[in-house]
Specification:
heterodimer; A: 112 residues; mainly alpha; Helix Hairpins; 5 helices; globular; B: alpha/beta; 6 strands; binds zinc ion
């Protein structure tokens, strides 16, 4: 069973694919005509598994920043480069909960 | 961007001159595993899901025995390319129906400072469109030879 954060990350990955479908096709790659439909259906399936308030937050962030989920590097949010407080980082590693940056509000993802 | 930049996205621990896989799916899974072994990604499942989904909307087999599976994933810290040579050839639903012998897996983060993912992908496709480059890649046995070819 995937945790909420993993579901959101999978959703962002899918959104990235949808966004660059045309560019990738222009490079000479095969993109079937029904691809948009296939990906839209996959997106609907995914979003159905994510609690509404969380999904709503993701969509709002996506509109505002383009990328709603950003990684943490050197204890910093890579969206706004604010140094994250220690309690937040330990909390996040322990619970694998969805944590947002206090500076920009983006959802944080621990890469390693 | 010069072609010598292309090599900077490859790594010796993601270079496989004698790669063995049963099927396209098997090859993708095994190569994602290699990204994990190399310490580049942690979440294998997310990256696999992205690459398999990409194949489902159109094969990344671009013909002439080459496949370039690619995509962005939140699970990737930077733009990285893995190279694998399969001597027996793999069925990849390629545009020309030919089996695949050379696989380039291009994995990119959701955003990079210089936004190089699409240009690099394009550059790679361009490099591979030259018959002489393809022929020489088929003969490459070491990372040094590979590096030489890409930086010429
Ligand atoms: Zn932030």
């Amino acid at each position: 069973m995937r945790n909420q954060l993993e579901k959101l990350v999978a959703l962002q990955d899918l959104d990235l694919m949808i966004q660059e479908l045309k560019e990738v096709q222009e490079l000479g790659f095969e993109v079937k005509t029904e691809s948009s439909e296939t990906l839209k259906n996959a997106r609907d399936e995914m979003t159905a598994k994510i609690p509404r308030p969380l999904l709503g937050n993701y969509e709002r962030l996506r509109k505002r920043y383009k990328r709603a989920i950003v990684p943490i590097k050197d204890d910093k949010c890579l969206g706004c480069f604010m140094k994250l407080p220690t309690y937040l980082l330990t909390h996040m590693q322990r619970d694998e909960q969805v944590i947002t940056c206090e500076g920009c509000g983006r959802i944080l993802y621990w890469l390693m | 961007m010069a072609i010598d930049d292309l090599i900077s996205y490859f790594r010796e621990d993601l270079f496989f001159a004698d790669f063995i896989a049963e099927t396209k799916e098997d090859a993708l899974d095994k190569l994602v595993e290699k990204f994990v072994d190399a310490g580049i990604i942690k979440n294998k499942e997310l990256v696999s899901e992205m690459l398999h989904r990409r194949e489902s909307i159109g094969s990344t087999g671009i013909g002439k025995g080459i496949a370039v599976p690619h995509g962005r994933t939140t699970a990737a810290p930077n733009l990285t390319i893995a190279f694998a040579k399969v001597s027996d050839g793999l069925e990849w639903d390629s545009l020309d129906g030919q089996p695949v012998h050379l696989i380039f897996v291009v994995v990119a983060p959701p955003f990079e400072e210089n936004n190089l993912y699409l240009p690099v992908l394009g550059r790679l496709v361009e490099f591979l469109s030259k018959e002489s480059n393809r022929d020489r890649l088929k003969d490459v046995t070491s990372y040094d030879e590979f590096k030489e070819l890409l930086t010429e």
